Every structure is written in C-alpha cells, then in structure tokens.
Amino acid sequence: MARNGLVLEGNVPLLRAFLFLLLLLLPQPSISGYRQDYHDALHKCILFFEGQRSGRLPPDQRLRWRRNSALHDGASAGVDLTGGYYDAGDNIKFGFPMAFTTTLLSWSIIDFGRNMGPELGNTVKAVKWATDYLLKATAKPGVIYVQVGDAYSDHNCWERPEDMDTLRTVYKIDRAHPGSDVAGETAAALAAASIVFRSRDPAYSRLLLNRAVRVFEFADRYRGAYSNSLHSAVCPFYCDVNGYQDELLWGAAWLHKASRRRAYREYIVRNEVVLRAGDTINEFGWDNKHAGINVLISKEVLMGRADYFESFKQNADGFICSLLPGISHPQVQYSPGGLIFKAGGSNMQHVTSLSFLLLAYSNYLRHANKIVPCGETSASPALLRQLAKRQVDYILGDNPLGMSYMVGYGARYPQRIHHRASSLPSVQTHPARIGCKAGSRYFLSPNPNPNLLVGAVVGGPNSSDAFPDSRPYFQESEPTTYINAPLVGLLAYFSAHS
After folding, report:
1. Rounded to two decimals, what is the model's pTM?
2. 478 part of the active site
3. Active site residue 174
C-alpha cells in the first residue's frame, strides 16, 4: 500500500514504522482511565523548585515543611554564596546542572510563557532564585564559583539541609583552572534569563546580559574542562564526559538570541566545525547540548533570517528523525510501554529534555509551514507534538504500571523518593537535630516519606517499565531540577492545547 507517496509493500520494517506513527496521530485511550490535568501538573511541577531552595526562604514560600538552610555558604572563601538550588536529593549546590536548569526554565518561559496562565509568575520566581545565585557566583571577574559542599562527605550522611554539618567547601574555576563547560552553560543561563526579564525588569535584564557577556569571554579565552581542573570534587557526580566545546556554542547561541550582536553569529559560524556542532545530534542534557544547539539555532533558519545556519537545521532534522519510534537508531530506544530510554541513570532527564526539543521544534516548523524529511517518510509538526505528548502522558500515569512519576499528582505516585529533606521528619514535627548517621534509619525505612515533595519527577522506570519505589534505588527514585525544568514548558503548552 502507499500513503503520500510512501511505498511500503514488501518492506516490513518500514511498514511497522509507518503503522506506529499512524497510531500516534489517532486519538488514544488513557491507560489510567481519565484525561490528564495538565494545569494541576504544571502547578505542581513549578512548586517542586521551592522544595529545592537553599538559603533563607522568602515569606511567600509555599512548601512550609522546608526551612532556612546553608546560611553561611561561601563564608570559608570570603564570599556570599547563599541561595540557589540543591540539584537533587542531596545537599550540594552543583553549578553546572543548576545553570542548565536555569537555561531550560528560561527557555520554557520564552517559548511557552504565554501558556502558563497564573503559574507564569511562579516560574519567573523560580528563574530569579537561580539567577540571583549565579550573579553571586560570577561577581568576581576571572572567577566562577561552581560548587558549594563536599559531595563525598554529604553522600556519607543522610540529614536534612536544615541540620547540615558536612563540609561546605567552595570550589571555583579561574584562569589557571579553567572550566569552559560550566562557564559556557552559566553564560547561556544568564543570557536566556535576560530575555525573560527584558520587559519585566529592564535593569535586572541588562545586568544578566552584561554578566553573560563577561562570563562567556572568560569561558572562551581560558579553555578547558572543569572536570580536569576540579576532578576530585565534581567527578563522578557531574563530571563533564562530553567535553566543553558544546557549551561554548550553546553560550554563544543564547548570547546571539539575547543580544542580536553580529559577533556571536560570526562566532557560531566560524566555530561550527571546530566545536563539533554535528556531534551526537540526539543528545541533550546538562552535559551535552548538541541537540539543543541545533534546535535553538534552527529557528533562525526556519524564520528565513539566517541561511548561514543551514547546517544546524540539517542536524536538527537528523535529531528529529532519530527519535521517530519504529525507525531503528542505536542511541534512542523505547520501552515496551513507549517511554524514551537511554542508558545511564535518571532516565527521565532524557525524556523531558528531548520531549521539550520535539515540542519546540514542532512549533518552529508549524510557523514556517515546514515538515522534516526522514528518508522515505517525513515528520509533521503534529506528529512531533504527539510524540512529546505521549512522553508527558507516560510520566503522568499513562503507562503500564498506571503510576504517575510526579509526586503528588494522580492517585498513585512514588512514596519513597531518594531525597533527604522529604524522607526525614521536618523541623516543624521534629525540632531536635538529626545527626549524620542518625538519618540512616529513615533512609532504610520501608515507610513512605513524611514530607510530600510536591511536583518532584523521579528518575523513572527501567527499560522494561518496572519501577522499584525504594530510596536505595537512586537512579530510579531520585528527583532532579533538570528533570522538571523542561517539563514546565511541556506542561504549559499542553495545559493550553489539550
């Protein structure tokens, strides 16, 4: 048979792929038996960030079981590094994933803020909580503070951030100890956030953009990976496996978008090959920016403004084709229940980040009235939106276990997440300090966590859709800020277009 010029007769793999894609475009019954409430999920997805706050909490803090923590961060180095976010279920502040989280929250607002309704203000606050910290971390020229806390001593304890007595060692990069990866991502975060605040707070926006320019210049001039300079502190936790080149392109791409300066356009074109823009085109996360770079820059091409970026669009098209279910690609797999799965820990970070790019590119294509050619078939904007929606619905409960992987959403969700503050009694219910090893009994307890970290999305099920709701299984049960950040944009869109 043939559809739209696609000849399938005698080609079983291609026929299977076509039927799979056709099914995606048909109305699907919900496994959980009801339509998803994307408004509620969006509200909770953003609320999660308040549970990850470090520092002195504001009067409008909504997750009331959290209290002030880490109020002396930076003191050992003579600087103020209070604030910011704990990245996951521990009590360390890692600058690399925090900056990526900030960039993705900002991108969510830039592309989907008009769909956020009353949650827009809370999302902007979430961005500012991060950028206020990043401004502190980059206040000294030629120095960026990239981590607060010793990960090994922290991971040796199970204690509330409010009780924290582990080492709060401050780690920095400088001219002699470069870190173009974390500096490039920090520049991207500041530049992206400057767009968010351009009309809301012009003075703050200018401060963010000017700082982004300075940080990027430092990243580019003193090249090197921060995991070489700070290996014992950042590895294996947020070790840069992919190299720093992609962060330089990523930073330049956001500075170009934020400033429209010709110098950044020329930098991107001049360094495209040197910085390997075409590498691993279907990877996107805190360590690998390649797919994000190609999608972000491709908007310029699709809008008819930048033919000199055509190769980035070709890479973005290749990324899209590699994600189509039923079309074999060694780096992208799907679980039997239909979840994107990549090897390594915390799979949901790949699910939300790649789905965000699918949706963003779908919108760019739709406005340009374009499709993506994929060999003998093609991908329309509608198909990309449906692919992204199926991933979001899986997270929210349309999956073989009928379980929402967002805490507090739906009738059934993870109860024993790998998260210190959530799993230990709150200061309100247990005012006495709980020491480093005294928390172990809560970690090992089979009981549900006493504090609901509303909106937290965990690492998720394995490649066969099985999920152990157990704290020791941290790769499956630990939430992270960089899982939630791209999901904010996805939920905003589907709350307005469901």
Report:
1. 0.93
2. yes
3. no
